[in-house]
Structure formats: structure tokens, C-alpha cells
Amino acid sequence: MGRWLGAAIATCFLTGLWSHLLQHPPGWFDLPASPAWGYQLSQGLHVASGFAAVPLLLAKLWVVYPRLFAWPPLRSLGHAAERASVAALVAAVIFELVTGVANAAQWYPWPFSFTAAHYAVAWVAAGALCLHLAARLPLTPRRAGGGPGGAGDPEPDPEPAGVAQGRRRFLATAFGTAGAVTLLSAGQTVRPLAPLAVLAPRRAGVGPQRLPVNKTAAQAGVRAALGDPAYRLRVIGPRSLALTLAELRELPQRTVALPIACVEGWSSTVVWTGVPLRELLALAGAPTGASARVGSLERSGPYRTSMVGPTQAAHPDTLIALAVGGAPLHPDHGYPARLIAPNRPGVLQTKWLTRIEVI
Fold it and tell me: What does the alpha-carbon distance between residue 310 and residue 327 come to, in Å, rounded to a whole number?
């Protein structure tokens, strides 16, 4: 059980690091544009493995609970290190799973930043696990024969049949629950499982234009500005532009099916239509290999602007989208224009665009 729990947590940790890198890319990192479904897969694995880890962690704690209060509490320096690692590991993993599940449901009852705290405590959990494994390593090699005392060691007494049967039932319950939780929540990413996704906080196909919404136009405080006849999309570069919505629609359009995948684990692949970003950058006189910074009508929030690196900016499927599913964007999906790019976290698919700056 510990190995399966470790595999789930390791999957969570590695995919979480990748998600954090994509959401907060350092200056040297150029976000890849392919495969288009890359973030959809990695974040789906992140949330699914986190959900699966919850029943496994509860079962593991149930098994080791008596050992957490063994007496005397400290028997040696190595034992003290092991106990400290267990305390840190248990606390960190519980924190990660509780806050992760709450984030998937978009419920934030705490005053701190979820993203910063979740990322920091993930490293605490990883460090505590490494310390725990190191403390558990045997200090003396086993002798031939497999036991600590060698081939002459007596075989342990066979356990009663009832104990073995109870262990099998316990393991079947723990792993069955983990499988059921995964099956009943993975439909928010795996479309064939969508009818079973009764535990998924978000479902593909549910929402305006059959697409889920994380933040509405009203919540972003932009609803009143969306109908302003003075709206212009400003492209700032060597030859700056200020385009009306009508002028954007007159430019050559491209239609492409792309997934939108959010950190909460839900994703949906839909058909977008809009102007390729690279065409707008070319009109503004951007040099080859340029990046772009896009800005929203939203006045506050950590994701009201985002960077589009050279690879994504030059990709033909990176669009300033004006329509989804053949219809103009709904206000909650970014009307009058939004960014949509392949292999990009949903929080960076900036909505309600008003400015594009050549970098």
C-alpha cells in the first residue's frame, strides 16, 4: 500500500512541478506548443492521482496509527530523525491533499495564496519522504538466507487465517475505493468517462457554449466594459495598431480544435476561430522570434496579463479567438477576444483582451 501511495504522490509531485513551471515560467523557459494536449494530460494526471491518493493515505494512516504514539517516543538519534520525518511527511501530505481537493472544487476557506503554499509544501513533503526513506535504510547487511541472522533463523509462526482474510478485505476496500474515486472523477478530463464523473467538480460540455467557466465576466468586473463601442484591441510594436472588433473579424481567420485545460483538473476540447497571433504581430512589425505580452480588461488579479513565448507566438494555432463552436464568444468566455494557444494552462489563456505588446 505504501508503494502505491508513493507512486500516486510521486505522480502528483512531478506533474505539479511541471504545472508550476508552465504557470510561472522563468525568463529562459520557452513554453512548447506541442503536443497541443500536453497540459491537458499532465494536469489531468495530477488531479486524478491526487484524488486516488486520498483513500490510500487514509488506509495507510489507519495501519500505522498505533506506531505514531509508540513509547518511548525517541530511542536514538536515528529514531528521532525518523519520527521527525514521519511527522513532517504526514502533515505535508494531508495539507497537499486537502488544499488540492478544495482547489479542484474552487473553495478557498484560507487567507493564504493556494498556489504559493501548495507549491512550497510539496517540497516539504518530498524532503520529508527522502529523510524518512534514508532513516529506514538498514544499517547492517542481511546475511545469506534472507533473514537478519542468516539461513539458521527460524521461520515465523503462520498467522491465523482470520488475520489474513481481514487483511485481504482491508486491502480490497482501500484499493477499490481509490479506483472508484478515480473512475468517478476522471471524466472531467477523459471524455469517454464523463457520464460517470459524479465526483468531478467541473464537467466538459456544461456551461455557456458547452464549456465550463471558472471566472465569469461579472466576477472579473468587466461586464460593463464589454459593450463599449470605443473598444479597440491595441497591438503595440514598431507599427502599432488599434483594431475594432469589426476590423478583427475582417482579417483572415483560422479555425482549429484545441483543448482548454485548467489547474482544477477539468478540460474540454472545442473548436475555436480567430486571427492567428503571429499575423497580428507581423502587422505590428514584430521581428522574427518575438514574444508577446497580452493584457485583459480585467483590472486586478494575478493572471490579468500573461506572456506568450516565441514558440507559441509563432505557432499557427495560437489564436486571438473571436468565436467558439461557430458562435461569437460568450462574455464569460472572453468576449470580445481572448487568447487560445496549444499546450497552455487555462489561467494563461487570457480572456477579454485589450492589449498585445510585442516583446
Answer: 29
